[in-house]
Specification:
Layout: H1 3-18, H2 25-34, E1 36-37, H3 38-45, H4 49-57, E2 66-67, E3 73-75, H5 81-86, H6 89-97, H7 103-114, H8 126-141, H9 151-167, H10 173-178, H11 184-195
Antiparallel strand pairs: 1-3, 2-3
Helix pairs in contact: 1-4, 8-9, 9-11
């Protein structure tokens, strides 16, 4: 399949997953500062970009995190790191899903990983995904704790928020469009800090 067809199919799949939302200049700048064009990453890593696109379309590697407004497929700089750690692309799914004791949860996370939407983490690893899930759940449940509002509670809450802050990037306006509302940074970091200032 010619490169233009593969690139077009990636674009179509990307819009199926994320919806068709325009990227602004600010979105492009944010993405360019934090991600790398697939073509450039493949050139640096000695990979064939079309073969990588085939792996994406075949659900062996994640889709790009963003399509810049010039059409560039923007991917994390460590796109191949998990496959390398797993011992190759063909072993990646089994290696990845094994990080969850529940096979159903593992499969759900694998599907989420393949969507390319894990732009909510600086580094997308099973450990980081699990930690983010734990932190957002703990922060969301914190108001129901018996000592809610006390100084020790506030210190525990802010420790959780600070840890999540390290894991997550800032996000861009495009993310709020494709995710249909506030991001986890909006709800679990910025809103919590505004509502419960440090003691």
């Amino acid at each position: 399949m010619p490169e233009t067809d593969l690139k077009q199919r990636i674009g179509e799949r990307f819009r199926e997953v994320n919806g068709d939302h325009p990227m602004t200049g600010a979105d492009d700048a944010y993405v360019s500062a934090r991600f790398v064009a697939l073509e450039k990453l493949c050139a640096v890593r000695g990979r064939d970009a079309d073969e990588v696109r085939r792996l994406m379309l075949g659900r062996r590697l994640p889709l790009p995190g963003y399509l810049r407004s010039d059409g560039a497929e923007m991917v994390p700089g460590d796109l191949f790191a998990l496959a390398d750690e797993a011992g190759g692309v063909e072993l990646l799914e089994a290696w990845f899903t094994a990080h969850w004791a529940d096979p159903v949860a593992g499969k759900a996370e694998w599907d989420a990983y393949l969507s390319g939407q894990y732009v909510c983490l600086h580094s997308v690893t099973p450990a980081a995904i699990r930690r983010k899930d734990h932190l957002t759940a703990a922060i969301s449940a914190s108001e129901d704790e018996p000592d809610a509002g006390s100084v020790p509670w506030s210190e525990r809450l802010h420790a959780l928020v600070d840890e999540l802050d390290v894991l997550e990037p800032e996000f861009t306006a495009y993310d709020r469009l494709r995710f249909g509302g506030p991001t986890s940074r909006d709800t679990c970091i910025d809103a919590v800090r505004a509502r419960f200032p440090r003691p």
